[in-house]
Give the backbone structure.
Amino acid sequence: MTKKEKNFCKKPFSVWDIVIYIVFTVFVIISVIFVFIGEKGNTVEIYLDGKHLYSFELSTDRVIELEHNTVVIENGEVYISYADCPNKICLNSPPVSKAGRSISCLPNKLIVYISGDSDYDAVIGGGL
Amino acid sequence: METQKEESVQKKKFNYKILLRAVLALLFTALLIAVIILALYTDEKNGVIMGSEYSFVTKGVHSKLCNANLISLIEEKENLFSTEKENSDIFNINNAPKGEQVKISSETMGLLLLARELYVKTDGAFNIAIYPLIELWKFSPSTFNYAEKQPPSDSDIDSMLQYCKFDADTFILDKENLTVTKKYSESKLDPGAMVKGYNLDIARQNADDYGISYSLYSFGGSSILGYKKSYNIGIIDPNNKERVLGSLLLPENMCISTSGTYERFYKDSAGNIYHHILATDGKPSTSGITGVTVIGESGVLCDMISTAVIVMGLDKGRELMLEYGLTGIIVTQDNKYSTVGNIGFYPEIDDYIRI
């Protein structure tokens, strides 16, 4: 056995192992970052009764018929066009178009939220 | 022969080590991926609870469990504080006849005592007993819509006012025996002006218990907590809700609450506008304040004070905020705003005047 081979067998981890581990680590971190922080346009997220139902691009016009509501994506804006609840407050809410804004039909537990790039982490207003 | 044997043994040993290394490397990588994914894992929850929307964006290893537990905690509170849910403490108080001692939980008693403290402190500007008038005005969740309607008459309002006091005479709060006794059967409570903020305090405690990294909690779009991280918060212009008045950096672990007259309102046939925040005379507040933002450590206090300031007006409202060590912004109907304390507010529209 040569000296080199001897060393190789004695030490379970050589410098090269560590190099490989570092390469692995960097690769994993980069791929995870790409997965989590990928560039996204504004999307319309529809939640019903606490569950995420659909994601749609805000840029594509679409009508989404749900059991108790109809949600319309039109010209980069979202609004609720139909609700079977008695008060119909959501039908009077102005359309939303910016990331971070939402409209809701509370009696039917429907939340329509725009996610994407926003200047703010959250927008606050209204309330008692 | 011998040297050949030795070589083959060496070869076998060498292969074994390689295998061990490969397994180790694989395990290490898998562990690394798991740790990174869990640490970066964000759990987002959006839904409706207690009749208003919530949104949680939570980061950390236990974020999913943490959010699920928070929802079940708040559902428990709904069974105490809801005006609609049968057999909640508040429901039982509201439906009890005069003189009956209604047994409530110690948590509800705590909330009512706090409401009493603020009622006395603000001379009735913060009043959870104004609910019968809210119903008379058709601003309660089950009665409100934007349709044009006539407001109630002055005589109807005046006859209702006596039931809408939260003083020690109208509502007897017995903190020893945990009972509430009403003087009038007609009296009713709605803690809606404090529960959203109260939920933030529960959210903070829950996040502490789960040891999560950081989180943004929002209730009703009007009460927000930035847990363990400072967040950039945009504040909706109370005089034009389609735009943002400006933004501020909410320091970590602080709560922010808003109240506005622009959320629930209707017009009568003459075009007069009536909004849902009623003053001590039982009519929509005419203080000229259209929006209040309050920042502080206690969520419930921020929520309560924001409502009180709308009724109390600029000067008294500012005094009240300072007295409780709170900061914020007060906006008037004529496009003026005033900041209270150092909040680092950054206005983003230029048709406002700072006063």
The domain at 84-182 of chain B is CATH 1.10.3980.10 (T-fold). The first helix of chain B runs from residue 2 to 40. Chain B touches chain A through 66 residues (CB under 8 Å).
